[in-house]
User: Which sequence fits this backbone?
RNA sequence: GCGCCCGUAGCUCAAUCGGAUAGAGCAUCGGCCUUCUAAGCCGACGGUUGCAGGUUCGAGUCCUGCCGGGCGCGCCA
């Protein structure tokens, strides 16, 4: 409908220009049509006349009048008015308003979906937490946001690929393997000390026990052979850890080291997948950094940067000239010890995404990674790729509150709330809705007590209750031996003239525009905001007007409206990964 | 010190590419269940959009400078 109005305006401008009402050389602006914020301003408003007034050397309101006079007739538009400083306000005909209800019921789960993104292939990478421990609440917002955004993009017709980048290479994997092995040895009865810098979590101990049950004592070495000759841990904890890794590699031969590492990785990644699954988050692909390295893709990417003339050697390392492309400083690609950096892998990863044919790359990152954006952008540019294809969505952390108290969050001390604990406490639906309710760049306070509360204060229940209430109305209807006339096309929607009904009709018609806007601006919170508004409009209507009444035609009209509302609630909640229950 | 994000009602947050009188919820106060779920509804109160300039028909939104909060500034990932 919005596009329809825009096209009417475009025709009017062309016709006005042909008639000499506009200078022939004037450049016609992009037509901007927006939903009127105020009902008194009709349904749609256009600022065309104000934008064009200066170039046309004409007063905005006069120009608006001329445009209005040249607007073609439309069966959807009841009235066009010039208002304020020069707005053109369009009011829809009742029939056009009713179309939303009929479309929602005709299209069902498809209502609100569009094709604006057709032809585009979007790669969206989110969460990508290191596979060294369980997901915590810091990852939760990225998960909820990324998944909802992917769904919203799909609804707008984009072809979306959801991916999790697994950092399963490098030193942290060695530390994981050693931590895991030591816990395994302890489970087997060996008295080995556990390093302070190892991964301390109980999840390691639990999975190490599983390895012992499966592989038996195949990887057991006595404690003395492991510790003898290692440097002093207290004076150099990192060096101690590296020596421990070297010792483990030496003792665990014939692939045993890889076995332990692989087992640890699979176990932890399995936990992460299970958590995400229970959170309603799914991926098309888990992309392994190690495979990238094993396939020579990292070396190839580094070589491409070198070929492009963007590298140099200094201090024994290979550097990328990031500072020539907008970054603060140059960045190391290959260290003095010959190993490539995490950044080098990331260059290769982004190059790989582009080579897989995606025209847009969306990265959902924690806000603490923002300093990393310029160097990735620079690398794309150096590789001859237009960096505007990359959109990094920075997600701010949410601070959890319980009983008015801020919950401590520190990864270092292991004092973090896991995503699983959050889900156990407030449920998947509340967690997901709360996370996407706010703009991702906005710092957020997450009130656990509120998310748990079964009250009107809780926006999740508020929206879900609206859906459940409609289901309840339908059950009541059936109990009284009535049904809604089967064909919504036949419903006498012209009987819906109460203010509450007009508001609801209006909101239902807006839904496709909300989804489209949320997709194009990549802001899924717009859907959450809309759903609260829709639920509020429904609850108001419910309290003001009885649905199950004697007048069959009016009853059918109202119930048809209500059924369409239920459909839109379900569709919108679905995009956010929140269930739409039939009863509370 | 430099860079990025944020600052909107007492609190948590919205505000459609720069659009018309800045909106919700909570809290506070006052109403509404014999009637489709009160997990709901109605009303009242509440604002110099951190401060000062600038850009223009029009600024919460864009630019500059301050103030305040968060994050980042490794041959870690």
Assistant:
């Amino acid at each position: 409908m919005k596009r329809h109005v825009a096209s009417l305006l475009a025709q009017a401008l062309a016709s006005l220009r042909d008639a000499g009402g506009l200078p022939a050389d004037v450049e016609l602006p992009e037509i901007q049509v927006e939903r009127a914020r105020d009902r008194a301003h009709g349904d749609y408003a256009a600022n065309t006349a104000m934008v064009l007034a200066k170039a046309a050397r004409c007063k905005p309101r006069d120009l608006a009048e001329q445009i209005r006079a040249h607007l073609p007739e439309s069966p959807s538009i009841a009235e066009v008015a010039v208002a304020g400083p020069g707005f053109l306000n369009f009011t829809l005909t009742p029939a056009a308003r009713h179309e939303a209800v009929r479309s929602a019921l005709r299209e069902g789960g498809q209502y609100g979906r569009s094709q604006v993104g057709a032809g585009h292939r979007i790669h969206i990478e989110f969460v990508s937490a290191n596979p060294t421990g369980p997901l915590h609440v810091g990852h939760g917002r990225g998960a909820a946001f990324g998944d909802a955004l992917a769904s919203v993009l799909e609804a707008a017709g984009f072809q979306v690929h959801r991916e999790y980048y697994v950092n399963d290479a490098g030193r942290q994997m060695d530390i994981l393997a050693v931590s895991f092995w030591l816990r395994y040895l302890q489970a087997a009865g060996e008295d080995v000390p556990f390093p302070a810098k190892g991964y301390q979590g109980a999840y390691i101990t639990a999975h190490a026990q599983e390895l012992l049950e499966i592989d038996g004592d195949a990887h057991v070495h006595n404690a003395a052979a492991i510790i003898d000759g290692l440097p002093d841990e207290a004076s150099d904890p990192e060096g101690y850890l590296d020596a421990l890794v070297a010792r483990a590699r030496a003792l665990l031969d014939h692939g045993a080291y890889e076995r332990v590492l692989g087992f640890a990785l699979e176990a932890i990644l399995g936990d992460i997948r299970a958590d995400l699954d229970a959170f309603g988050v799914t991926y098309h692909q888990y992309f392994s950094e190690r495979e990238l390295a094993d396939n020579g893709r990292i070396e190839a990417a580094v070589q491409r940067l070198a070929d492009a003339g963007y590298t140099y050697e200094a201090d024994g390392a290979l550097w990328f000239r990031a500072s020539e492309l907008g970054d603060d400083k140059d960045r190391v690609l290959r260290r003095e010890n010959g190993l490539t950096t995490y950044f080098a892998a990331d260059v290769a990863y982004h190059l790989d995404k582009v080579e897989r044919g995606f025209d847009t790359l969306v990265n959902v990152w924690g806000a603490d990674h923002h300093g990393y954006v310029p160097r990735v952008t620079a690398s794309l540019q150096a590789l001859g790729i237009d960096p505007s294809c990359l959109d990094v969505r920075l997600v701010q952390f949410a601070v959890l509150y319980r009983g008015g108290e801020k919950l401590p969050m520190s990864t270092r001390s292991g004092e973090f709330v896991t995503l699983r604990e959050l889900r156990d406490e407030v449920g998947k639906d509340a967690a997901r809705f709360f996370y996407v309710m706010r703009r991702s760049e906005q710092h957020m306070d997450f009130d656990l007590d509120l998310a748990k509360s079964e009250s009107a204060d809780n926006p999740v229940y508020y929206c879900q209750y609206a859906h459940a209430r409609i289901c309840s109305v339908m059950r009541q209807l059936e109990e009284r031996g009535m049904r809604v006339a089967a064909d919504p096309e036949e419903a006498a929607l012209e009987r819906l003239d109460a203010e509450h009904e007009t508001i609801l009709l209006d909101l239902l018609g807006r839904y496709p525009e909300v989804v489209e806007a949320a997709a194009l601006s990549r802001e899924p919170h717009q859907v959450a905001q809309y759903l609260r508004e829709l639920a509020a409009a429904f609850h108001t209507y419910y309290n003001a007007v009885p649905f199950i009444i004697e007048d069959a035609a009016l009853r059918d009209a109202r119930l048809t409206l209500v059924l369409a509302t239920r459909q839109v609630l379900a569709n919108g909640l679905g995009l956010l990964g929140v269930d739409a229950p039939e009863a509370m």
In short: Chain A has a mean pLDDT of 92. Chain A has four domains: 2-92, 121-166+273-395, 171-271, 456-576.
